[in-house]
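Structure (tokenized):
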């Protein structure tokens, strides 16, 4: 899949609720955030900030121990959604590439369907494929078929290709986006009366 990957920062962040759904339609995770950018027709980019945006798991409840910053690169047309976790300085800690169906966007929410299989990349560049057994176990109960099998294969192949090519979001664009957000936040704090 090729296309225009130029990062376009929105003039004003838009509050959104990101919902990670399962194939049966159930909501697994809801995470408040702000839509801050797009990257061509491929990605919607949502910023999540610990302490400001809350994440709720359908089974576990309110999540704790969240990354200081996270960027959700949500596939508009690609069968992939990437959640990159960053430290306070904006450096990548981990990227979790979820095989997923393309997102559905509304005025205040972005929904995507997670297809279980993940490619996880740590800060050192170590790549681990996870949850293939979960996908196999959910195949019957969720009603997976040849279409979902193809989406998983295409999503994981795309993640591997983006990594190998150093393409968005593995080209430093997330770190640059966060550097801008961190600078703006610091300027706002320094302008506050003491």
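Design, position by position:
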């Amino acid at each position: 899949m090729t296309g225009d990957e130029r990062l376009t920062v929105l003039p004003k962040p838009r509050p959104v609720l990101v919902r990670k759904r399962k194939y049966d339609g159930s909501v697994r995770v809801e995470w408040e955030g702000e839509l801050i950018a797009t990257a061509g027709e491929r990605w919607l980019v949502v910023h999540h900030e610990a302490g400001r945006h809350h994440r709720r798991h359908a089974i576990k409840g309110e999540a704790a121990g969240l990354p200081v910053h996270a960027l959700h690169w949500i596939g508009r047309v690609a069968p992939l959604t990437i959640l990159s976790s960053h430290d306070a300085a904006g450096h990548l800690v981990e990227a979790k590439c979820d095989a997923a169906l393309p997102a559905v966007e509304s005025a205040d929410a972005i929904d995507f369907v997670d297809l279980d299989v993940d490619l996880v990349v740590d800060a050192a560049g170590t790549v681990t494929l996870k949850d293939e057994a979960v996908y196999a176990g959910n195949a019957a109960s969720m009603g997976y078929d040849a279409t979902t099998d193809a989406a998983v294969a295409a999503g994981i192949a795309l993640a591997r290709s983006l990594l190998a090519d150093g393409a968005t979001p593995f080209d430093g664009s997330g770190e640059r986006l966060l550097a801008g957000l961190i600078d703006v936040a610091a300027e706002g704090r320094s302008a506050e009366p003491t």
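Reviewer-requested clarification: The chain has a mean pLDDT of 89. Residues 52 and 182 are 14 Å apart (CA to CA).
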